[in-house]
Every structure is written in structure tokens, then in C-alpha cells.
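Support reply, case 0932

Customer input (verbatim):
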Amino acid sequence: MTEDEAVDDDLLTIGAFAARARLSAKALRLYDRLGLLTPAHIDEVSGYRYYRVGQIERARTVALLRQLDMPLARVAEIVEAPDGTEAADRLGAYWADVEARVAGQRTLAEYLRGRLSGRNSEMYENFVVETVDVPEQVLLTETRHVLAGELPAWIGASLGRLMEAATECGGITGAPFVVYHAEVSMESDGPAESCVPVADGAAARAWAERQGRTHGATVRVEPARRLAYTRISKAQVAHPQILAAFEAVEQWIQKQELSQAGPCREVYFADWDAAGAGDPVCDVAFPVR
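Our regenerated output:
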């Protein structure tokens, strides 16, 4: 008996099974190694792999899912689903993620086309840059190293925690903001710092002592600053639209012969959940001198 011969009507050699499943033996060995499709029987002497006829559908499903460029872990989640409805739902969730990622990449590609073609100056004209003087502030803060994909969820969670804590620190005295101490991207993780201005410095310091190192929480005093900023809508906060806003402010600073005096920030002055896509919610800002 060779590895390419069928054993009976139900138990097939890897060669026979590969032909029925329209897959290569190499692919089947890979699926076995990854735990996606384990042979029904392996001969202890020869090492030949044998599969059941009933495994053909699973083999074909795995192969089709891989054609969607689906990560192996997600493939396993789908083929291990308890029933077909759950498997379909898991596939639907994966594909929704893919479409959202592609939509973001399409927007990024269009933004990059503008930069490469020299049309970026036209994009900057859509942003009005102004300055504002901000007084000294006592800040409750959380600092974290975070990648771009994790950033929105972390900002919402951290500002939520700090705004709740502000009630025992005399209340919030200014718009919450996020400071980027270094680049946050798919490869660079900052760190980023969430900040909420509060009224009572002594109470804030007591709060920070109670927090210890939880969530990277602390309290600090930020000196008075002048900010150059542009106001953007909720839709413009999304990446990469927000990059154009940052670059527009940077360009304005250069034209005004000013100097950046600290890391850039996003100041959130509106109720995010209540705002519509076109409503102004955020100032993209740089400290200047």
C-alpha cells in the first residue's frame, strides 16, 4: 500500500483525499501542522496520513477562507464554530473588519497621492489656523505606549477614567486633551498622554498617590502656553484626515516664523457621542513661542 492509494470508501490516503478536496498534499500537511485539519489516522510504521471523506468539506472551507487572506487564527475560529450560523457570523465580522481597513487604506492612498503630486498645499488651505493663550493648569494624566490601531479605544477609556476622577478634584476646568510625546503609528507607540484639567491641586495629588501606577496615572502642572491650532470635525479626526490638519498647523507655524515649544496635542472640547460627522469636536494644536 502506498500513500497515494485509497484504503476504503471512507478512509482515504493523503493523495486520494487531496484529489477529492482539490488541494495539494503540501497544503494538507500545512493545515495538519497548524491544527486546522488533522488526519483521521496516521500509520505508526509508515507515517502515512489518512483522512475521512467527511473531512473534505472542512478542507475546502479552509482553502477558501485562506483565499480571503484570512489569518490562520481567524480561520480556526470559523471552522471550529459550533454551527453554521455562528461560522457565518464570524466570517461576516471578519469581512466587516476587512472592508473598514480597506476603506481607511483607500483614504490614506488618496491623501498620499495629494502629497506626492504636490496638491498638499491645496489640502492645507481648508484649515484655518489661529492662536490661543492657555493658562497654567493642574492636570490628571494617564500615559501609555500605544499603537495607532489601539489609540481610539484607549483615548476614550483613559479620558473617561480621568473625567470621573476629576469630580473628587474640584471638577474639570478645561477641555480634555491628548499629548503625543512621540509618533503614534502602526510601527511607533508614542507614548501618548491623556490629560484632564482640574481645579484642586491638593486633591489631585492625593488622588495620584492613591492610584499609584494604575493605568500610568499621575498629576502634573502644565505651565501657561500659547497654542497654534485648527478646529476639525468628527469626521476629520479619523486617520489620515487628521494628518493633514497637523501638517497644516506645522506649515502655518513656519510661515509665521514661530517655533514649536512642545509636543502636539488633540484638544477635545465637545461631546463626542452626541456630535455628528460634520460637527466640530477637536482642536489640533502645537505649543508655540
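We compared this against your earlier run and they match. Two observations from our side: The chain has a mean pLDDT of 89. The two ends are 84 Å apart (CA to CA). Please reopen the case if you see a mismatch on your end.
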